[in-house]
Amino acid sequence: MIEDNEAKFVACHQPVFLEKYDMLDKAAEGATFLLNSNASAEQVWETLPQNMQKQIIDKHLDVWVIDAYKVAQDSGMGRRINTVMQTCFFAISGVLPKDEAITRIKEAVEKTYGRKGRKIVQRNFAAIDATLEQLHQVAERGEINGFERQPTVPEESLDFVKQVTARLIEGKGDMLPVSMIPADGTWPLGTAAVEKRKIALEIPVWDENLCIHCGKCPFVCPHSAIRSKIVRAEEMQNAPDSFKHVQVKGKEFGEGWHISYQVAPEDCTGCGLCVEVCPARDKSNVSHKALNMEPIEPNLGDEKVNWDYFLSLPEYDRTKLKFTTMKHAMTAQPLFEFSGACSGCGETPYIKLATQLFGDRMIIGNATGCSSIYGGNLPTTPYTKDDNGRGPAWSNSLFEDNAEFALGMRLAVDHQTAYARKLIEQIDAAGQLDGALVDRLLSNPQQDEAAIQAQREDVAALKQALAAIENEDARHLVSVADYLVKKSVWSIGGDGWAYDIGFGGLDHVMASGRNVNILVLDTEVYSNTGGQMSKSTPTGAVAKFAAGGKAVTKKDLSMIAMAYEHVYVAHVAFGAKDVHTIRAFLEAESYDGPSVIIAYSPCIAHGFDMRENLSQQDLAVKAGHWNLFRYDPRQLEKGENPLSLDSKRPSVAYGEFTRNETRFSMLKRSHPEAAEALYRKAQQEVEARWQHYAQLAELDYSVEDQEKPEQEKH
Amino acid sequence: MIEDNEAKFVACHQPVFLEKYDMLDKAAEGATFLLNSNASAEQVWETLPQNMQKQIIDKHLDVWVIDAYKVAQDSGMGRRINTVMQTCFFAISGVLPKDEAITRIKEAVEKTYGRKGRKIVQRNFAAIDATLEQLHQVAERGEINGFERQPTVPEESLDFVKQVTARLIEGKGDMLPVSMIPADGTWPLGTAAVEKRKIALEIPVWDENLCIHCGKCPFVCPHSAIRSKIVRAEEMQNAPDSFKHVQVKGKEFGEGWHISYQVAPEDCTGCGLCVEVCPARDKSNVSHKALNMEPIEPNLGDEKVNWDYFLSLPEYDRTKLKFTTMKHAMTAQPLFEFSGACSGCGETPYIKLATQLFGDRMIIGNATGCSSIYGGNLPTTPYTKDDNGRGPAWSNSLFEDNAEFALGMRLAVDHQTAYARKLIEQIDAAGQLDGALVDRLLSNPQQDEAAIQAQREDVAALKQALAAIENEDARHLVSVADYLVKKSVWSIGGDGWAYDIGFGGLDHVMASGRNVNILVLDTEVYSNTGGQMSKSTPTGAVAKFAAGGKAVTKKDLSMIAMAYEHVYVAHVAFGAKDVHTIRAFLEAESYDGPSVIIAYSPCIAHGFDMRENLSQQDLAVKAGHWNLFRYDPRQLEKGENPLSLDSKRPSVAYGEFTRNETRFSMLKRSHPEAAEALYRKAQQEVEARWQHYAQLAELDYSVEDQEKPEQEKH
Question: How far apart are the first and last CA of chain A?
Fold first, then answer.
């Protein structure tokens, strides 16, 4: 007899789950267990954990195995295994007669993918047929000799992580008493690091002899899973044999400073962007680069050791980095790592970059959307902290109020800072503080890392001095003294937020003139909610609510922001012009007013292999789909044009860009006539937009030597 | 003994209330009654209504009279009587000892008006002192010989108006059973006409011999209280002797067509704008114009008769009017009349104009604000209908969703129209309709009044034909046939709505590309809610939340709207360039897409005598505070620049404009240093903005004969 909470069928779609979950505790006596594994029916027993082997025997489970990734790959479906696993389910679960089930699956494929093209349907059919051939029953039961499952989180984790986070990861959150949940909503940082996804089949392997130390690989990595560190060679004498490091190129570092590029093998998703971007090739074998994807199995053991060693090495001194260069910027520690974003995500490199540049001072309001899901994917978060315990403060309110939410953070910070300054002046007036310290604290402009570091040291000195002062002002000042260090307030979200649902608030923040940095991760579609059209969706793209291709032109959020004239605006695409992106972030953050960075973010919703993420960004710029520019209001004060158009007149037909992306190309099949008209319209728009921006960038902002109306004394 | 709901003190601040309300029914035995009247203490008894005379005698009331308007006028306070009436209250109510009360009032004046300038304080002091001299007790009681109060609404009113509206006007709405209130929220139009405000002390009197028939007086009238009609002379043979009319100038009307300019004496508020705008002067006496303000008393009797007669005359045929000219446009009947807006209101002329041009086809969503209060000031509404029973449909939802609300109206109308067209085609396919009629109905572009009239006649013919057809399609078509006549959908509100609270929705409507006409009545401040700063408030203006002068530049809503490139945008000021305003309205309405008209609307919150409304608008344009321009996306299709800058480079110092308005000038007294800096900033902004717009108007939009990237077949 089957209990209510028992299952007659259990499937494990990811072999790594064997290590993570007790998959068979709810399996009923005699249930069917389906496992996706690259081990054969004969060998698979040995790969199971001990307790699972025991459950299979005790409960007399019927075990089936399939190498779903191989079937998918061979059928031309890449890493998409859903059709394969679905076919297995119907083939062995007995829910429907097998033949009828297969017929129905094929009908469903026809219906679901028909409009995406014949080829896709045929690949699915091939996968279904191959599945039936490759699905094998595991007849033999061996000894109970498997591995023992590791604890969910490492032994050295915080108590909170072991007691709360781990339970939630295991899916046992419901067993936690409410009293163990943080009363004020504060959760520890850096917890995504304890969740090892281990989904890469291949990982990048570094050839230190070819590498030119350009920094592009850590820059493009969506998961902060490849890093560089610059460390004195003498500090690495105890390095494991397999750990690679070489003298760093660049005179500014000096002899004896070595660089290492290291992959986090269990966090890498295998997207391959680091290899795509790598510019260093072996001249005698041009397919060999300084980074190359290799199967994970033979490399995993060494690289785990190397990664742990890499983490133990000290960070390079931030105050000595020139953040405008890629190599230097990428030496800074990212404080956003191992998020649950899709493999090859086009958004996360921007957030990672911001945390490298400003993470130890960032306060982030995050809109609802992908970035709130991978940003605060409870129980874990990818936001983390440096060795000083400093990292971004992050929170998510609602879809519709994120800009206002961040503005509130800004106002609170400004108020606390003003209060701290006032208290210093009050205590100083009573002669209780060192005058030189007070002067420095109140006058430090904090415009670079060195000055910020100096301010931090002065704040520490201040706190020490305050400890000896017995009055209420001193106690209050201790509580707000950290606000004397410049904070970097950010409002982050997608186009659904910034162009649509939260636009009223975005406008309010822009109008306020306050120093909030707004990062718009523009995927041109509601990504997280399932691909609905947003105001950012471009002409002719197919999305939900725009099945016939979007007819209305993409909203020009930059132009709207520039209408304020006091808003810093940047339009960037990290895969097209990487240093331009870094420059825009630095300028935006340094501007003492509202800044809007609109960041082109390719997404799986665009319908292309995300390994082409960077080249598609490049095409988007070359075809005029995404112009690069920066608008800096500081130029106005000098009587100069604030707009700098940083990309060239379109040099590639719009169709060269769009034909690679299903969001555009599918329209030709589903609505051929509309497609023709919309693409013509889009091509015209692209040209007109460039011409318009080019003319704006040439406008005269000098104060004219004209006859002025006489200004009467008012 | 005084009952709970009885009053010991009753004051009547407006003599006209004697005619409207039973003011003494709640007065207690022996209560004090204060009356503002220009009748002396000796003569005032005769001016009271019978029932009030009786109540005064029966309840032994203590009666006091003051000519508050005279006291205010003589003290330099214009028509502001609040200080006078307040002083009377404290002088005779016995709430405080009289001397103490007067001292306290003067302290309050000092506190309230001190920052507005010494002169204002002194005028108030003078008014207080004069009040004490001019306040007289009415000792004598005469016979009960007064007039009888007229019914609240005319006898010929609709039953609903008599039974419901009148009760509400009387303040007795609480006595109505709920069942008498319209279940669907629909209220009859034209009901403001039954409420005669009679607040003018002077009204304009027409000199038909001087008049040049320019049409400017009805154009600027905020209350539609002066009108022109063009009627055949032969139709006016029975006119009252006092009714004036002359041969209309202009060959297009022909001999025997006369024009009359007629005031509605009980609806006029005496603002004087019609006289201010009148360009026709007597050469031998230049202070005498074709319109002149004269005291109402000697004119009221005749003008009431004249006005009733004027209303009985037929309207001129709309299909023969050239709406681009002022004289013609002002011959069209306004379908917005006698609103409760302030005397001299800068908003209402725009709404009136829209109703003259499109009122019989308008559907209006109205944002919360002044325009929702005077627009739907239940129990009455100023929106009315023509002799065919056609007028605007009007509704008000919320502050924050008005643009969306109007968009919903647009979508509903479009859907109904499409449904009607589909039904026509279905019925026509069955051979049941006249083919020529069907062709006309489906192909009429309705781009002018004549074509719209033709469509209306065809719709009438269609309905007649449908009556003879026995099927469901025909019944459905009858219900939606009126949607075959082009509707004009409007979203109306103030800057608090459009720039701030409802901006997200405004943006959504602009982005939608749908044909919604958005009218922004820009007073540059939250007027109705009490003068709070909005994003439209200009640099240096004082408002609530900007007591030190607004430091952030006025939001450039036009520039934001133009960023869409498919939005018609107009920036108008009716008092500065009247025909420009008419042209903008016609262009906006004719554009088959979103239109935004941003209309400069002087307001009492600006702090100047509203009789200067027009000259201040003119100064606003000449000083560059308010540039006039139109942006027509239809120009883009021709490869031409869509922006037409219609005002000249600023020719007057900004201070010439601002010094006349307290919102600006008070800053100099309250925050002299901030004022200096802000005015300098404002002057620079004004110049920079003009230069920027002038350059934008010169940009090249021609399709360049450049080397184009080859367009690949997609």
Answer: 93
Burial code (b: 16+ CB inside 10 Å, e: under 16) for A318-327 equals: beebebebbb
Distance of alpha carbon A37 from alpha carbon A146, whole angstroms: 15
Q: Output the CA angle A314-A317-A322, nearest 5 degrees.
A: 135
Residue B461, token pair as written in the block: 């013919």
Please indicate whether, in this complex, the C-beta atoms of A700 and B695 are within 8 angstroms of each other. yes
User: Which residues 551-570 of chain B have a CB within 8 Å of chain A?
Assistant: 551-553, 555-556, 559-560, 563-566
Chain A residue numbers touching B703 (CB-CB < 8 A): 687
Chain A nearest C-alpha distance from B676 (Å): 8
Residue with tokens 């310290």: A437
3-state secondary structure A109-165: HHHHHHHHCHHHHHHHHHHHHHHHHHCEEECCCCCCCCECCCCCCCCCCCHHHHHHH
Looking only at the bridges linking them, the beta strands covering B285-289 and B281-282 are: antiparallel
A645: β partners: A629
State how beta strands A285-289 and A281-282 pair: antiparallel
Backbone angles phi, psi at B8, to 5 degrees: -90, -15
Instruction: Judge whether residue A712 has pLDDT over 80.
Output: no
Average pLDDT over chain A reads 94
Backbone angles phi, psi at B383, to 5 degrees: -70, 135
- Are A321 and A332 spatial neighbours (Cβ–Cβ below 8 Å)? yes
Q: At what angle do helices B348-358 and B578-590 cross, to 10 degrees?
A: 50
Closest by Cα among A379, A363, A370 to A399 = A370
Distance CA B129, CA A347 (A): 73
Tracing tokens 């200067």 back to the chain, one arrives at B612
Cis check for the bond before A672: say yes or no (omega within 30 of 0).
no
Q: Is the minimum CB–CB distance between B655 and chain A shorter than 8 Å?
A: yes
Instruction: List residues bridging with B630 in a β-sheet.
Output: B570, B644
- Of all residues in chain B, the one with the smallest CA distance to A510 is B555
Between CA B125 and CA B131 the distance in angstroms is 10
Name which of B463, B456, B454 is nearest B433 in CA terms: B463
Q: What is the largest CA-CA distance in chain A?
A: 100
What are the chain B neighbours of A667 within 8 Å (beta carbons)? none
From CA A210, how far away is CA A227, in angstroms rounded? 17
pTM of the model: 0.86
Beta bridge partners of B204: B293
> And the tokens for B50?
């019978």
Whole-number Å distance between alpha carbons of B367 and B371: 7
- pLDDT value for B712: 46
For A345-402, the pLDDT digits (tens) are: 999 999 999 999 999 999 999 999 999 999 997 889 999 999 999 999 999 989 999 9
Alpha-carbon gap, residue A294 to A274, rounded angstroms? 13
Tell me how far apart the alpha carbons of residues A150 and A250 are, in angstroms, rounded to a whole number.
Answer: 43
Please give the Cα distance from B233 to B239 (Å, whole number).
10
Which residues 534-553 of A are in CB contact (within 8 Å) with B? 535, 551-553
Whether the complex's predicted ipTM is more than 0.85 is answered with: no
Is residue A702 left, alpha or beta, with left meaning phi > 0 and alpha meaning psi from -120 to 50? beta
Q: Are A132 and A87 in contact (CB under 8 A)?
A: yes
Reference A712, options B683, B621, B674, B653; nearest CA is B653
Residue type present at position A516: V
Q: Supply φ then ψ for residue B289, to 5 degrees.
A: -115, -175
Give the closest residue to A137 by CA, choosing from A34, A25, A217. A34
Q: What is the pLDDT of residues A527-586, one digit of tens each?
A: 998 899 999 999 999 999 888 999 999 999 999 999 999 999 999 999 999 999 999 999
Give the pLDDT confidence of B54-71 residue by residue, as tens digits: 999 999 999 999 999 999
Q: Which of A372, A390, A371, A374 is nearest to A382 (CA)?
A: A374
